[in-house]
Every structure is written in structure tokens, then in C-alpha cells.
């Protein structure tokens, strides 16, 4: 759910070094943060295939922040290599939860890669990807999106589960190098912070328009079995329009309503009914799948290792 780590090399060494020095000075003298606990909320939902349906909403909410939108617009390869970009981002997210000792290393890798992302946003303000406010917002978006999407794709969280989810999400933030002082520490503190960002910062950036549009050119997937790729390329002009409409439908529909309203994204009662019908099918069928189909490979392997270690 972080901005892509493939980008051009435009850099301001003096500013980058200043950020690095501040990182060093502000580093908490704490032990390496551990990932969320096995069998916690995130252990159950982050690697579930339904998480793939939630990620576009979280990404759109991230890049609605002017600094993040500008960074992704200028540095990301999401236009030229969307499938590779998505695969790398998904692997990173899964490592935060299921990576064990690799989780903290992945967090350090991301911070290092983001040190060269800087520029000027749409409001004329200088930004750097590791500035505390935008860096924390990128991570913060996961909590409201998980909470909202779960109401359609699974069972709504109880108050206790929601509180546990937030505590685990804070733990993931520590893996990513987000200081506790830069993130609300309880759900009660989160919502005023969230509403303030919606009101004061978010806008319909160029990247949000692309992610919620249906006419952006998207190359065919270059992953998957070799025999299938030529067929996909041949059929892609026919497959892309309905896929783009479905992506827009899920991106806007699984975004929290107050975020949709802040960005001026349209959502009709008819679309809401369609999303509820789609959610009913998903939350009925997915729990019936065997684990090898329900969980993404990295998550499935971690869960299997954990079960084996307990035996």
C-alpha cells in the first residue's frame, strides 16, 4: 500500500541527507519491531484473497494526498508496469504481516528507497516521501478501508476486533519506521485525525482520476503461464473495458463514504445495491474455499509454518 519503489533518479542530495540525519536523530532506541502476532486479525485477513479487492481503494485514498499523489505521479511506474508494480507492492504488504524476521528488513528497505522521492505538490509545497505526515497517511489509510470493506466482503468487526485491528496496524507502522508520535494511538484518536486529513488535505489528484477512471491505457498482463500470454494480448482490447469498469466500481465502492464525499467521487443507490449483492456472493463463497485457494502463496506458507511449529 506504499508508493511504488521504482522511479527516476531525480534527487536533491542536500535535502535527502537532511532527511537521513533527522531519521537518525529521531530514531527510537527500541528493539526491532515485531510483526503482528500469528492468529491475530491481520494474520487472518491480510493474505486472504479478498484483500486484493480492497487494495485499490486504499491506494486511491493514499494518492489523494497532494504530496503522495505528486510523488506517485512523478516517480512511479504504475502506468508503464502496473502488473509488476502491483505484484511488488502486494509482496511488500504481505511481508509486513507474514514475513517474520523479514518484516523489519522490508520496512528498512522501503525507507531507504523512498529517500530520493521529493518534489513540489499541486499546492506548491515542497514534499519528501519520508516527511512524517504524508508517510503516516499512506499507512493510516489501511485501517478505514479494511474496516469499511469488511462490512461487505466478510463479517463486520466487533468493537473489540476493531480495537485489536488498530493495535496491529500500529505495530505494522512501527515496522515501516513510523513513530508513535506521528500516528494516533487509539481508534478514538484516529477518527478526528482522519476527518481532518479528509477536510484539509485530500483532493482529486491526477492519479486518483486515473485510478478511478475507465479510459486509461493499461498494458496486458505479462505474468502467468506462457501459453496464456498470447491469448491475453489478443483478447485484451475486449477484456480491458469491463475490467476497468469493475475496478472503478470496487475502488469507489469499498472506499469509506466520507472519503468518497471528500473527493467528490460519485456513488449511486443502484451501485450500492450492486456492491451489496457482490459482497454477499464473496463473503458466502470465499470461506468455503480450501486454504490453498483462499490465501495468497506467501501468507499460506507462513500460516503452514506456524501450524507445523505448534505441533
TrEMBL record:
Residues 43-284 form the ER-bound oxygenase mpaB/mpaB'/Rubber oxygenase catalytic domain. It is an enzyme of class 1 (oxidoreductase). InterPro entries: MPAB/Lcp_cat_dom. Residues 1-40 are annotated as: Disordered. Keywords: Oxidoreductase. Its EC number is 1.-.-.-. This is Oxygenase MpaB family protein. It comes from Streptomyces huasconensis.
